[in-house]
Amino acid sequence: MCVEVLGLVDVRAGLSFAERWANAGLDNLHFLPAESNTPLKWSLAESGEAGGGGGPLLSFKVESLALNKSQHRVAKLITHYLITPTGEIGIDVELAVEKWVPPLGRVGLRLKLRANEDDELSWLGRGPGENYPDRHQGVFVGVHRSRPFLDGHVPYIRPQENGSHGGCHWAQVGSFMVRGGTPFSFRCSPYSDEALAAATHQTDLVTDAPDGGAARALELHVDTLMMGLGGDDSWSPSVHPPYLLNSHRSRGKPAYKYQVWLTPMGPEDHARDIARRPVYRPV
């Protein structure tokens, strides 16, 4: 859920970060429970106001280990969950990555959403074009709108990572909304990372159908941290140091942390109102 590789980018082919991630087994992680307990207190949660509604709150903590296929420990995750009476889910994560792990591609959450062809995507953040930590001078912060099935994918000659939007405070897809404790990046696409990696031409791309049915699916990445694209040349991994996610390789550095809130929206709900709700943290 929290340790991910960034989808293949064409300038990284060959001697690339993608190759380093594959060698480290980051493309095939599995998770083992380390410890779990419930309940867990969240600050201000006893007021009954979290999520915009009163009543009992469900909260718990899960500790788990991320291992690669060689059973080497990659990271330890401490995940706190808070479920409110309105159905909103708060997820607070601490991610302690082992020092041997190469710089990460992204730190965040990956979701699969059941969606309709005409669902609209809106967000408060950088846009309307795609942008990354080291490529965002030509976009602007504001409320932007698009339709993921029509324009959520950038058709590069070789399918690859695309369509990210950074500096976001919230994003809404149909009746689903996500907001962050801090600004985040997101990508909402009809194509999964696996589909992008397996394709060599745009005509090779296939979309997922949930449960094998006719419904369409969208893949949503919500990333508190993301590595830059680089691209000074096409034969070396040339991401500049300020845009690398490698603080876990330095002595005494704290774990990566992020928080997101997942909110189901009714016909009378508005993203701007939900975005004003207070953010609660575990104590």
From TrEMBL:
Q: Catalysed reaction(s)?
A: Hydrolysis of terminal non-reducing beta-D-galactose residues in beta-D-galactosides
Record-listed E.C. numbers: 3.2.1.23
Cite the GO molecular-function annotations of the record. Answer: beta-galactosidase activity; carbohydrate binding
Write out the transmembrane intervals: none
EC top class, as a word? hydrolase
Q: Which SMART domains match?
A: Bgal_small_N
List cellular component terms (GO): beta-galactosidase complex
Q: What keywords would UniProt list here? A: Glycosidase, Hydrolase
Cite a single GO BP annotation: lactose catabolic process
One Pfam family from the UniProt entry?
Bgal_small_N
Highest taxon, organism lineage? Eukaryota
Q: Does the keyword Hydrolase apply?
A: yes
> Could you tell me which residue ranges the Beta galactosidase small chain/ domain spans?
4-263
Keyword check for NAD, yes or no. Answer: no
Tell me what this protein is called. Answer: beta-galactosidase
Write the lineage as a comma-separated list. Answer: Eukaryota, Sar, Stramenopiles, Ochrophyta, Dictyochophyceae
